[in-house]
Amino acid sequence: MSLALFALLVAVGSFSAGLLGAVTGLGGGIVVVPMLTVLFHVDIRYAIGASLVSVIATSSGAASAFVREGYTNVRIGIFLEVATTVGALVGAALAHVVPTSALAILFGLVLLYSAYRSLRGDSATAEVPPPDPLGEKLRLNGSYPDPPGRVPYVVHRVRMGFGVMLFAGMLSALLGIGSGVVKVLAMDRAMRLPFKVSTTTSNFMIGVTAAASAGVYLHRGYIDPSVAFPVMLGVLAGAVLGARLLASADVVWLRRVFTAVVCVLAVEMLYKGLTGGV
Amino acid sequence: MEQVIGRLLQAGVVLASIVVILGATLLLVRHGAEAAAFSVFRGGSSHLRSVSAAIIGAVHGDPGAIVQLGLVLLIATPVARVALTLAAFAAQRDRLYVVMTAVVLTLLLIGLFS
């Protein structure tokens, strides 16, 4: 395959990934790395480097729109970024010693777990924990626009959310993903934020988390310009379109589409990791 | 503050994209017909592994280095966003969030320059 054809095909695939990633708040990276390794046979380290760069583009591109629309909670974002950046530096240190087949298996497991939680997300909303006094103390509570007015909300289980974010940051650095899945989980499930607040705040944080390990990847040669540019430009274009669609998007339906894609990619990644095809 | 953060993120991404598109166009014009071979990792020997190498290469018109410079600008965007947020919290005399943002910024700089 010529470099020009490779760039074109990767850009088209990345565009779809960016669209899905932005709308679900899960980031394009979770689809980009399996796509590059499974479909295009790119070494997983180049895939991780390119994905990481695209993750920053997705986050910043979509976040610029969300922040101005008032869905994003900047305080929650900063508070949880303390956890994700610490986790990212730990992950970047670990990434040096973890074999690539283990990375593929870990990636597959993360994808499967995402799919599982995404499916459960449709039904179980039974027990609501009491509001966390820490949320009041740290002034994390807020409100989001829902015409004609704004809907106030309180945060729950702040410590649990923070702990899950440490893990999210570590995964982000290890796999070159935004870990939006885990971030949304922490905010959606643990802290009980409204869905659009958790997806947009997650998007806001993803770029910072990715930037924490991006320098390390650059120095290690994971970021190859020829692989990274079609991924970055494709994902960015998809993310910009995704941001436009969010306000009117059907969340339940999108989660189902996401789950189906993720399941297929999870099986492929596990197979590659277990058979040493990475 | 939200408005300014939104604009900064947008400006960083737009600037980075322009540089990347420029480099990518040159790259495809000069090397587009060559075979794409990325199944074997050779990153350890890449000459574009630092910010300074990307800048020097870009000045000399190396298409790969121009793309890499755009990517470095993209990586710098969230770092600039955190710095701006720090200034905004400082202006509001919000001590708790100044400390939190300063911690995040320090960790980011450690990651980028270690």
Helices and strands in order, then pairings?
The complex is a heterodimer of chains A (278) and B (114).
Chain A: H1 3-24, H2 29-39, H3 44-69, H4 74-95, H5 100-120, H6 133-137, E1 142-146, E2 149-153, H7 158-175, H8 180-190, H9 195-220, H10 225-246, H11 251-274
Antiparallel strand pairs in A: 1-2
Chain B: H1 2-31, H2 51-59, H3 63-91, H4 95-113
Helix pairs in contact in B: 1-3, 2-3, 3-4
**Widest sheet, order of strands of chain A:** 1-2
Distance between the termini of chain A: 20 Å
How many β-strand runs of chain B?
A: 0
What structural category characterises the helix and strand content of chain A? mainly alpha
Number of strands of chain A: 2
Radius of gyration of chain B: 18 Å
Q: Largest sheet of chain A, described in full?
A: 2 strands, antiparallel
Roughly what fraction of the amino acids of chain A lie in strands?
under 5%
Most extensive interface: A-B, 64 and 67 residues
> Span from first to last CA of chain B?
31 Å
Percent of residues in helices of chain A = over 70%
Content of β-strand of chain B: under 5%
Q: Helical region count of chain B?
A: 4
Could you state the oligomeric state of the chains shown? heterodimer
Structural class of chain B: mainly alpha
Descriptive terms for the model:
heterodimer, A: 278 residues, mainly alpha, two-stranded antiparallel sheet, 2 strands, 75% helix, B: 114 residues
Q: Care to describe what's here?
A:
The complex is a heterodimer of chains A (278) and B (114). Chain A has 278 residues and is mostly helical. Chain A has helices spanning 3-24, 29-39, 44-69, 74-95, 100-120, 133-137, 158-175, 180-190, 195-220, 225-246, 251-274, and strands spanning 142-146, 149-153. A two-stranded antiparallel ribbon of chain A has the order 1-2. In chain A, helix 5 runs antiparallel to helix 11 and helix 8 (180-190) runs antiparallel to helix 9 (195-220). Chain A starts with a helix and ends with a helix. The longest helix of chain B has 30 residues, at 2-31. Chain B is built from 4 helices and no strands. The model of chain B has no long low-confidence stretch (mean pLDDT 89). Chain B is mostly helical and 114 residues long. Chain B has helices at 2-31, 51-59, 63-91, 95-113. In chain B, 76% of the residues lie in helices and 0% in strands. Chains A and B meet through helix 1, helix 3, helix 4, helix 9 and helix 10 of A and helix 1, helix 3 and helix 4 of B.
